[in-house]
């Protein structure tokens, strides 16, 4: 299973996506990462990886890092009775990521293409997004429209959702 910074960069470059990289010490939370990228323009995102109760369905959600996720609301959106955060073991087995490194680039490792990708409409107007490139010692900045371009290029449909109604 691949899980390298270079894979993320190669994906961006293959699709002509302009990006900026900020290198920093390991950041395990969005709050830690924010300290290292303070003053730079870009929506601070958090990417959450969830599963249903029986670990048969998997969900990735990108949302503003300042917002809290109502798990019951998301379960309704995903047409599940309940969803939960995936365990570190499930995260690693499915996406090759460790906690603190979850981002859309983890989809590169979803060989079965089982993860459903969700994006919160609340940040749709943001021009620039920020993500870790499968490791937590760099943060990438690139255009929101380019995020959608690469997610589609990896073979995923994007489900746009309204959270925190």
Task: Describe, in short, the structure shown.
This protein has 165 residues and is an alpha/beta fold. The chain has five helices and eight strands.
Biggest sheet, in brief? 8 strands, mixed
- Helix and strand sequence: HEHEEHEHEEEHE
Q: Roughly how many Å is the radius of gyration?
A: 15 Å
Helical residues, percent: 25-40%
Number of strands: 8
Query: Helical stretch count?
Result: 5
Give the overall shape, derived from the CA principal axes.
globular
Q: Averaged pLDDT, please?
A: 92
Strand content: 25-35%
Helix-strand category: alpha/beta
Distance between the termini: 38 Å
Unreliable residue runs: none
Descriptive notes:
With 165 residues, the protein is α/β, with parallel strands linked by helices. The chain is globular.
Keywords summarizing the entry:
165 residues, alpha/beta, 5 helices, globular
Topology record:
Blueprint: H1 5-14, E1 20-23, H2 30-36, E2 43-52, E3 58-64, H3 71-77, E4 83-85, H4 88-95, E5 115-120, E6 128-131, E7 138-143, H5 144-153, E8 158-161
Parallel strand pairs: 2-6, 3-5, 5-8
Antiparallel strand pairs: 1-7, 2-3, 2-4, 6-7
């Amino acid at each position: 299973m691949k899980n390298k910074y270079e894979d993320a960069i190669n994906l961006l470059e293959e699709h002509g996506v302009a990006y900026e990289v900020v290198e920093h010490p390991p950041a395990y939370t969005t709050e830690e990462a924010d300290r290292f990228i303070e003053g730079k323009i870009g929506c601070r995102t958090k990417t959450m990886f969830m599963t249903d109760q029986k670990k048969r369905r998997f969900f990735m959600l990108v949302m503003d890092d300042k917002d809290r996720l109502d798990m019951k609301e998301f379960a309704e959106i995903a047409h599940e009775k309940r969803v939960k955060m995936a365990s570190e073991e499930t995260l690693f087995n499915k996406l090759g990521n460790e906690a603190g490194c979850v981002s859309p680039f983890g989809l590169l490792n979803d060989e079965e293409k089982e993860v459903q990708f969700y994006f919160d409409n609340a940040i749709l107007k943001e021009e620039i997004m920020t993500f870790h490139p499968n490791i937590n010692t760099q943060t990438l900045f690139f255009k929101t429209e380019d995020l959608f371009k690469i997610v589609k290029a990896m073979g995923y449909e994007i489900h746009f959702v309204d959270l925190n109604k």
